[in-house]
Amino acid sequence: MSITTSVNGRRSRAGLLADRDLHFEVEQFYFREAELLDDGRYADWLDLLADDLDYWMPTRTNRLRRQQAFAVAARGEAAFYDETKESLAWRIRRFDSGMAWAEDPPSRTRHLITNVVARHVDPGEHSGFTEDDLLVKSAFLVYRNRLEREENVFAGGRTDVLRRTPDGLLVARRTILLDQNVLMSKNISTFF
Amino acid sequence: MSSSTEPATVTPRGALRRPAELARTVDVSGLVDTEGGLLDRAVFTDETVYRQEMRRVFAPSWLFLAHTDQFHRPGDFFTTWMGEDPVIVTMDRNRRIRAYLNSCRHRGARVCRADFGTTRNFTCTYHGWSFNLEGGLVSVPNREGYPDSFDTGQWGLVEVPHVETYRGLIFGTWNPAPVPLRESLGDMAWYMDAMLDHDEKGTVVVGGIHKWMLEGNWKLAAEQFATDWYHVNMSHASALMVLAPAGKKPKQEIVHRAGRQYVGANGHGAGFPVHPKNRFDDGTVHEWTDYDALRERLGDARVEGPLTNGHATVFPNFSYLPVNGSIRIWHPKGPDRMEVWAWTIVDASMPEEIREAQRLYNLRTFGPSGVFEQDDGENWSEVQGTAGGFMANRVALNYQMGLGGEREDGRHPGTTSELYSDAAGRSFYAHWRTLMNTPAWHEEHA
């Protein structure tokens, strides 16, 4: 929990819930991001990501309850995504080749973003960030419908650090936990 | 090979007699034409054929279980599948790696439902029967309720009778009298060593396992990894494009590659481009690799061949890609579905930062989100989807590329063909046909 102390005469906001205006801004940011992904505008989506982005989607294992702490793969272990902005750009270049057959004809996707809880970052826990930046948890439900009848549902949660910049918010850190053990689809051809 | 020896674990059957009608057997000779290079699509769709595969292909064959690096101390366990049977692989108290059917002898529930971990016992959460690391039944609630004849020694976990290791890869078979693993690999071992024997310390697993579902018969993937370099240029055109420098097309020598394909007698297969400057795709791994030392250790033919780019299948359902250290098993899940489990392995002597580079390269290119493998999933679901139609199912598929071109090339052991060839696919299905038409160890013999 946050400790409200006075720093240079200002009350610390570290760990405090975002107010209504900020919360609205964060949600709108996510909805716009979802729209870009659903429209396949990946280059525009990249513009919402910080240059020092860390984008990580680890695999999840079934563990005995007493070993449950290890149920999410650690850094350096198996992940569906373990990306920088540069590597995401590299992945996205593939779609521009005109020969990315897994998405030709393209799938229909709908990214639903919900359960948003936004807090001011505690710089003590996230070095390099300030209280103007936001630590945000959200849930997603991504529906993919492909060709005639193929359907996939990807459900999970995200923990982001959004950086406040003069141009608005940018995703600087994103951890994605998909609520699946065996991935129940033939591939992952979208982003979360 | 198909003697009717009883398995290692005694499983009392009392007065039970399984009626032969439960297992329908079909003669599959007419489904595979290796001389003509034709395949009947019923091999991908028919339920009877699939059930027969479980009995005659999976039950007698060596099946990949795990990597030795997954087991370091007694009680370390890993759960997987042999065909559609759940199994536990564990290190016992004497540090021996053993495998058991993951099914309680009482009512049949799995006695371990975690993917991996460390334990002392495997306890069924239904009625509480508990088994130790040696598979022995060590605890039975209400033991006094059973008759005097009840012998816990007869009710241990059913053990996989043969578990053998080849350069860190653990295989098991239900066959009570198998051809030894090394012998069943034959010349395939020479090709496998190009990935597994860079370094006398062998290989280690980096980062766990990717698991995902595919809509497609398991043989579509196994066959492709045995025989199909042909699909690379078309299926993976977008991936080849992003591997090329920005704004440039893939180099002509990437698109028109010469190479060889190993055509194993036991259904194994491997294809690889041959070039004096073959290299690992990832720049960091390439920079670190001492190709001269590898030439010394493995010989020129392997360094210029199966060391880097290439594909391979160890019959029936274990495959690998040397360029990124991806090893995988195609678990059958019915005629029309498979589950892929893919590990990344690296040389034990690789420094941390090189391992990390290989891990990242692998997950960005292969695996369900990889720029290459996304498109494979699309191909197999497409082939499976059409095969269900009455007319489509009747129309034979073409495996004629390189027909008659199999020979000994004097440089690579065993029989080989051109890189672009269906030869290893034809031999994959020839071996499959032989097993499918041969009564397995568990069948009554006339």
TrEMBL record, chain B:
A Pfam cross-reference name: Ring_hydroxyl_A
Annotated ranges, domain Rieske: 62-160
InterPro entries: RHO_NdoB-like_C, Rieske_2Fe-2S, Rieske_2Fe-2S_sf, Ring_hydroxy_dOase_asu_C_dom, Rng_hydr_dOase-A
SUPFAM superfamilies cross-referenced by the UniProt entry: Bet v1-like, ISP domain
Keyword Acyltransferase: no
GO molecular function list: 2 iron, 2 sulfur cluster binding; dioxygenase activity; iron ion binding; monooxygenase activity; oxidoreductase activity, acting on paired donors, with incorporation or reduction of molecular oxygen
Domain of life the protein comes from: Bacteria
Keywords of the record: 2Fe-2S, Aromatic hydrocarbons catabolism, Dioxygenase, Iron, Iron-sulfur, Metal-binding, NAD, Oxidoreductase
PANTHER family, sorted: 3-PHENYLPROPIONATE_CINNAMIC ACID DIOXYGENASE SUBUNIT ALPHA (PTHR43756:SF1), CHOLINE MONOOXYGENASE, CHLOROPLASTIC (PTHR43756)
Family as reported in the entry's similarity comment: Belongs to the bacterial ring-hydroxylating dioxygenase alpha subunit family.
Name of the featured protein: Rieske 2Fe-2S domain-containing protein
Species of provenance: Actinomadura rudentiformis
